[in-house]
Amino acid sequence: MSKNNATWIRHTHLFSADEYECSACGHTASDPKPVCPHCGASMGGEKYDPSWIDEAAMMDIILGGK
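and the corresponding C-alpha cells:
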C-alpha cells in the first residue's frame, strides 16, 4: 500500500480502548491522526476490524456459554 492512500484500521477490543493501525507501516496509535506519526503516510479514511467478535466468542467459551 502506498503512502498516498493509506488508511487507519480500527481494532476494537472488549476490555481495552480501540487502537488504530496504519495500513502502510503497521504502526499503532490510540487515536487516528490525519498523518501517520511513524511513516508520514496521509490517511484517506478508516477501516473497521471486527476482531472484538473473536474476543467475545472466546469469553463465551471460557464462561461456558452455549
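(Above: one complete record from the training split.) Helices lie at 52-62.
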